[in-house]
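Hello everyone,

My group is preparing for a crystallization screen and wants a predicted model to guide construct design. The compound we'll soak is nicotinamide-adenine-dinucleotide. Before spending weeks at the bench, it would help to have a computed complex in hand. I've included the protein sequence and the ligand's SMILES below. Output in structure-token form would be ideal because that's what our pipeline reads.
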Amino acid sequence: MLPICTLERLCKIFQVLERYELDHIQAVSSRDLEKCIHATSVTIRKDISAIGRVGVTKRGYDVIELKKHIGEHLKLFRKRRACLVGLGRIGGALLEYQTLQDDGFEIIAGFDNNVNKVERMRTDIRVYPVHELLDIVKSHRIELGIIAVPGEAAQKVADQLNKAGIKGILNFSPVGIALPDRVIVENIDFTTALRILAAKMG
Amino acid sequence: MLPICTLERLCKIFQVLERYELDHIQAVSSRDLEKCIHATSVTIRKDISAIGRVGVTKRGYDVIELKKHIGEHLKLFRKRRACLVGLGRIGGALLEYQTLQDDGFEIIAGFDNNVNKVERMRTDIRVYPVHELLDIVKSHRIELGIIAVPGEAAQKVADQLNKAGIKGILNFSPVGIALPDRVIVENIDFTTALRILAAKMG
Ligand SMILES: NC(=O)c1ccc[n+]([C@@H]2O[C@H](COP(=O)([O-])OP(=O)(O)OC[C@H]3O[C@@H](n4cnc5c(N)ncnc54)[C@H](O)[C@@H]3O)[C@@H](O)[C@H]2O)c1
Ligand SMILES: NC(=O)c1ccc[n+]([C@@H]2O[C@H](COP(=O)([O-])OP(=O)(O)OC[C@H]3O[C@@H](n4cnc5c(N)ncnc54)[C@H](O)[C@@H]3O)[C@@H](O)[C@H]2O)c1
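Reply:
Good plan to model first. Here are the tokens for the complex, ready for your pipeline.
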């Protein structure tokens, strides 16, 4: 198991390589990556060699080869089956965010406890009242849950997802959720991004 | 000017200290911080001493003193005046996210190019049609802009914010925006968070 900071940097490098590939750039050096992901080129080269050998020439790494190398090792090319709980503003924005679909995250089901909302929604994905969560998550082998409900509902929803066998959760609510260690939880907080922005502005 | 990765880690440490303070925990060691922000305790201690001397005992750093030390040095206690462009789902969620207000980010104005939306919105902050952006940003000395419009409108909005003298931008759109180096741009992408989650799930 790789150290977490290595994992996170490799994911960011993967994101940068995707962009380079779209712009038809063929080679990238660890110095180029330094600027994009805010780590030294020494660290970046260590991270990359931590997952095995990959060719590097005077011009740097081959973009497509390095992307394949990282993607295969971190299993980033696997299609992940996800569900979304909370179909309000954040949930609605995620449902429509096409990039998610292209990036290998398939939202299989959406849940909300507001039955009117569930009935009235125009969406390509199936949406259900939240009391059906356990059944749907199990029968559809959903592995990842996105929590976009108000803070006071977050822990309850997390417990239901855990009971249904979910192995990872992306939490948008402002509340920290407590779950067994084997469930990975990533919290998203725009305030941290704003603070980093403010600190860089000086 | 601190290295960017040091700045980012210090912001994350600040976030962790806020939580510790709310939970009435008095001391925190660099080892405790290691787990929360995914960097070695050596790196963390280096980051903290990069901004000056702060007391440390056998039990670690004093939470309140360390938070004050980081906050003052990075000017995180300054109230930042922000505006929000795009009052759809992401914009609406941000307007109602109370934590932002408590954390020193005051959204002074909202803008949208849909005049109906602007007229019908029930919100505590003043909202305007986007053609008034230049005037309002200048007259209200707004320093930071949040872009929550569709990808195709993002660059145009960024140019208007730049023209109005904005020094920092938080960009939610999936499009990279091009601006002079003196404007700091932070991009938020949920796909990266999902990828990190997937990589940790294995
Ligand atoms: N992380 C951040 O930086 C950030 C920014 C903005 C909002 N938020 C948070 O994201 C969450 C969603 O925000 P929003 O603006 O979309 O809110 P919203 O009110 O628009 O949507 C919440 C949805 O959750 C549903 N819901 C409530 N309880 C539920 C339950 N027990 N089970 C299933 N569905 C339930 C509601 O019916 C509603 O549709 C909130 O917790 C908010 O504080 C976080
Ligand atoms: N970063 C991520 O991970 C992520 C996730 C979801 C959505 N998004 C992106 O965030 C953005 C907003 O998403 P949303 O779901 O809130 O969209 P939305 O359609 O609900 O809202 C967009 C708003 O922008 C307004 N607008 C359009 N052009 C404008 C202009 N030139 N000036 C001012 N306002 C204008 C529209 O009237 C609308 O109110 C989109 O670019 C979307 O792709 C990003």
